[in-house]
Write a structure and sequence with these properties.
By secondary structure, this protein is mainly β.
Length: 798
């Protein structure tokens, strides 16, 4: 009883102490918050939401804080999504407080939907045409000789043979070329020069990165439409845009607009669909349009998400004579003037210099300049090409010269206008008698009104040219041109030409032409009808009337040579009013190594018989090849010594590799990334290679060795049985040391690669049972696919 009394007293005392402590704590610090409720928990929430602006999915997931019904996103995330920085405060942005901005939270799609003013969005530049992708060009090291052997024999006259050649050596950064011909007179008189004539020897060093080329040796000076070129032995340095076919050097039209929502746009140029693309909301600029030239109309058809379409017609005018803004072009040449080209091998004259430069100032103005210099010669000229909005292009140039103490001037101007329906052009030149340039500087037989020996009057005093062509759709095309030239001695030549052509039925066509010499007041008339048969055959009929030869009627039949080689021929017969009948016939044949042609032409008892052989000799990778004439680049395919492997170039069969595993592919276009593929089906089963196709772009006038390296591995099929003689179940795993696992197929067959002479196989079945077997390979000199077994796999014993 005393114990229970003490326990009850202790409990009452503890209760009083606890109550007193709570009261004292509340009195001492009544600022402590109450326990958090549900509303306090939801006052601030962090989401990671996809950001959608004006119905456009920016494909960005950004942190979003919801605080008291407002949404906060960092300014950096909004700028990365495309919003302009000047419309956003720094740091955390309360989207709900921004003016003219609507915010909506899509809980199902976990998206934050924004509607912002259009001017908050950046201008998006969209390219309609990606163009030709630039591929870094390559070239190997080797040499080739192009040759053209031509021989002719007249019926009662001279017989001669001429061997033309081009020697080319190429290496990492350039190529060395040399051309010439050897002539031999083997019958009749020798009125023509015999022996060897050297034409050009030039070392070319190209740099595709900055589109420039160094040329050392026999070069031709750079010229503009209002200047002249001369041959020089020296150095030439300048731009060469042909090194980069992917570059468009003239200004292309760009169209601007504004899209409220994600929009699809289709481009039609002169009625033809030229491309399509997708636009995101906001201002846009459509650039890099497909190649166009002249005047035309572009129709932009925009389609929004609801299928609503809007068409906008935008006129344009494009001319390739202009340079894009900021783009420059030109070259400078220093050296000795080349004399008696094609007659003397090494005849060089005085030191000269020449340079031309063009610069695209705006998309409608291109500036031009040209200069020439030598002892007692100074020439300088300025010109321009101006686009008159949609009204065509005007070109003009003024040149002043001083040669041997005499000053002269030259004025050039012209106008061009092109559309899909017609084109109009005119060019004019005026110069005085004292004008001189490098083309006249070393002239051997000058003609001068003053009677001295200064070669300043061999150019014309004036030259005028007008041209017009009209497309009449199904009625064909009409063209007209007038050319007038006046010399300093008062002589004048005027020529008028009118032509009409039209397609008839199928691929047949008719052509009519008339030319008038205004000084002689006579006409030349011609008519031609071409009728093709099949893919390669055709018949042509022509009538002609000339003042000197009278009238003639001609009929010819031709068979074109197949692209992969074979025969070609043509035959012609003509009746002439002022001469005997004319006949002509030729036969050609070509394979992958040479092209042969031969035939005869002429009148009765005055026939000329001729024959020709053209081709190339190539040395590369210590191998000699023969091929058709290689005008640009070539590729040698190497299959690592394996013969009879089919090779394709741009999906066209080119032949099979020779006994050493090589095949030469000629006729390759430089700077184009072409596809080269081999057919691996003819390879032995134990041969492995990394790839069967390569895409390569070559430098100009070069060659490249495309290698397909191969390795020989030991492979085999093995039939595996268990100790009861049953097939190892399908799906069982076969393990080897340092090799990936192999799966057993039906009938217990497993395919094994990278084998050794002796191989220990560990097999684990699907039910977990393990067994081992040893596979020993036999000699296989013919690399045949072999199947071993059945081999008994012995189970592991515990």
């Amino acid at each position: 009883m005393a114990l229970r009394t003490r326990q009850l007293g202790s409990l009452m005392l503890l209760t009083l102490v606890t109550h007193a402590t709570a009261v004292n704590a509340q009195d001492a610090d009544d600022a402590l918050p109450p326990p958090p409720g549900a509303s306090a928990v939801n006052a601030e929430t962090l989401y990671h939401l996809a950001l959608v602006i004006n119905h456009y999915d920016t494909r960005q997931v950004v942190p979003v804080v919801q605080r008291q019904g407002h949404y906060f996103v960092s300014s950096a995330d909004l700028q990365r999504a495309g919003l302009a920085a000047e419309h956003l405060p720094q740091g955390e942005v309360n989207l709900s407080a921004l003016p003219e901005v609507r915010v909506e939270y899509d809980g199902n799609g976990q998206r934050l939907l924004l509607r912002v003013p259009r001017d908050w969005l950046p201008v998006t530049a969209t390219a309609f045409r990606d163009g030709i992708a630039h591929t870094e060009p390559v070239n190997g090291q080797g040499a080739l000789i192009n040759y053209d052997l031509y021989t002719s024999q007249t019926e009662h006259g001279t017989g001669q043979a001429t061997l033309w050649h081009e020697f080319r050596y190429f290496y990492d950064i350039g190529s060395l070329t040399s051309t010439g011909s050897l002539r031999y007179i083997y019958a009749g008189d020798h009125p023509q020069q015999e022996g060897y004539i050297r034409y050009d020897t030039t070392l070319n060093l190209t740099n595709e990165e900055d589109v420039t080329q160094w040329s050392i040796g026999d070069v031709i000076t750079e010229s503009l439409s209002w200047s002249n070129s001369v041959r020089v032995g020296g150095i030439r340095y300048g731009r060469d845009f042909s090194l980069r076919p992917d570059l468009v050097t003239w200004p292309l039209p760009a169209f601007s607009g504004e899209a409220a929502v994600p929009t699809a746009v289709d481009l039609f140029i002169d009625g033809y669909r030229a491309g399509s693309t997708q636009l995101q909301p906001g201002p846009f600029s459509l650039t890099n349009l497909p190649y166009v030239n002249g005047s035309g109309n572009a129709v932009l058809v925009t389609t929004d998400a609801l299928g609503r379409q809007v068409s906008t017609v935008l006129p344009f005018y494009v001319d390739s004579a202009l340079l894009s803004p900021g783009l420059s072009d030109g070259a400078i040449t220093l050296g000795a003037l080349r004399r008696r080209y094609g007659i003397d091998n090494f005849d060089y004259g005085p030191a000269v210099g020449s340079g031309s430069w063009r610069y695209g100032l705006t998309d409608w103005l291109t500036l031009e300049s040209h200069a020439e210099g030598a002892e007692s010669l100074a020439l300088g000229g300025l010109g321009s090409v101006v686009k008159l909005w949609r009204m065509g292009v005007v070109n003009s140039a003024w040149t002043q010269s001083q040669m041997r103490g005499e000053e002269g001037h030259q004025l050039n101007w012209g106008y061009q206008y092109n559309t899909s329906t017609f084109s109009l052009g005119t060019q004019h030149t005026r110069r005085d008698a004292d004008f001189g340039n490098l083309a006249l500087y070393d002239y051997d037989r000058p003609v001068n009104m003053k009677g001295n020996n200064e070669p300043i009057a061999s150019l014309s005093k004036s030259a005028d040219q007008y041209s017009l062509s009209v497309n009449l759709d199904e009625w064909g095309n009409v063209g007209a041109a007038w050319i007038g030239v006046q010399s300093f001695d008062g002589q004048r030549s005027e020529l008028l030409n009118i032509s009409w052509s039209r397609n008839l039925w199928g691929s047949s066509s008719i052509y009519l032409a008339a030319s008038q010499d205004r000084q002689r007041d006579d006409w030349t008339l011609a008519m031609s009808i071409q009728i093709p048969f099949g893919e390669r055959d055709g018949v042509g009929v022509s009538l002609e009337k000339t003042p000197d030869a009278g009238t003639s009627q001609r009929i010819n039949y031709s068979h074109a040579m197949p692209t992969d080689g074979g025969f070609s021929w043509d035959m012609a017969w003509a009746r002439q009013s002022q001469a005997s009948q004319y006949q002509q016939a030729s036969l050609g044949w070509r394979n992958n190594y040479v092209e042969l042609q031969g035939g005869g032409y002429g009148e009765r008892n005055m026939m000329t018989w001729w024959g020709e052989a053209t081709g190339s000799l190539v040395f590369m990778d210590s191998q000699f090849f023969t091929a058709n004439k290689i005008n640009d680049a070539f590729v040698v395919i190497s299959t690592d010594g394996y013969p009879d492997i089919p090779v394709s170039y741009e999906n066209q069969p080119m032949g099979k590799t020779d006994k050493n595993g090589y095949l030469l592919v000629s006729g390759v276009s430089s700077y184009y990334p072409a596809s080269y593929r081999i057919d691996a089906l003819n390879l032995p089963a134990d041969t492995r290679l990394k790839e069967t196709e390569q895409r390569v772009a070559l430098r100009r006038n070069s060659g490249y060795l495309v290698e397909f390296p191969m390795t020989q591995t030991k492979v085999a099929s093995v039939i595996l049985h268990d100790e009861n003689g049953d097939d190892i179940p399908p799906g069982s795993q076969v393990y080897r040391h340092m090799q990936p696992a192999t799966v057993v197929g039906y009938d217990g067959i497993a395919w094994l690669e990278n084998l050794s002479e002796v191989n220990t196989l560990k097999v684990i079945t699907s039910d977990g049972m393990t067994c081992h077997v040893t596979l020993t390979l036999r000699d296989n000199p013919l690399h045949q696919l072999r199947t071993y077994g059945p081999l008994t796999c012995k189970a592991d014993r515990l």
